[in-house]
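Form 7-S
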Amino acid sequence: MAGSAAPEPDQRKYLDVVGVGKAFKGTTVMSGMDFRVAKGELVSLLGPSGCGKTTLLRIIAGLTLADKGDVVLDGRAITTVPAHKRNISVVFQSYALFPHLTVSENVAFGLRARGMAKSDTPGKVAEALELVRMSDFADRPVAALSGGQQQRVAVARALIVDPVLLLLDEPFSALDRKLRETMQVELKSLLRDRGMTAIFVTHDQEEAMGVSDRIAVMNAGRIEQFASPSELYARPQSPFVMDFVGLSTHLTGTVAEANGERLSIDTDYGRLHANGQFKQGSKVMVGVRPELIRNAPGENTITLPLAELMLLGSKTHLYGATKTTDRLLCELPGIHTETERGQDVTFGWSVANTLVYEAPK
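Output:
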């Protein structure tokens, strides 16, 4: 199915979360949260457990009330509106299906709760099941379905009520890898074709990169960076984002020379160069994406013993023997077995591909 284009960045905001804060038992989990989504946009909240992403989702859904701040949806203030009056659908991690009901009965549940006439329900249910390719399973009990089939039923139940916003809390976590990837493609295409605005909660960075127009990377109750997948990957704004979104090389060092924006950085493995604005003597972290490193000299070059080699089918990972929390990872296309552990390997990359940050405390 062909998908519509992603929303333009300057498109009118549709969901606007402003200055939202939340505390549980005196512990602040979120403060000053600002979060905006355009109509028709697919956005992911990405971050580790406990970072606040599910709390934010529940506040938007009305399942948790914010202590402060406002939530506005399509121009309507919904901060204190009960969940059942927001016309927002939620697909939970467990799917929350009724095991004693059939597929059709599960999908029809939301319509019955909204008082739709019984005579109008079968047609809407049939349309929703056709949408998720589950028409042949209409009369089967939910308990007889596979994980992927149950996920489709949960999505059909969420979409049948024509919500103004769809929220999905770790919707693929119970599926195996291949099925998870298949469902990601199918759901993204389905939402695109319907012009839905949707927010995914996930801790899986590959999932977020695959389904999203933009990703909000969350850490300790705040958004570290909110950008497109390509921008997050190519230009992460912090060491946390660099390390959480994709794999990376990261090496600590001290700025030895600062000539304009050209930095010379001393590390435990030799001197490196980068473009940035740091004073001489600053403690910094140098970052590079592993596919931008080659096992050959470059503008930045380090030679280290090979600590580990991992064959991953279409690619090979070479790990240099680094100290403490440093990591030097080179990703080469194809299979490479010519180097053994303990042998010296030269790693090289360009200055343009070198990222530099203030060293984490």
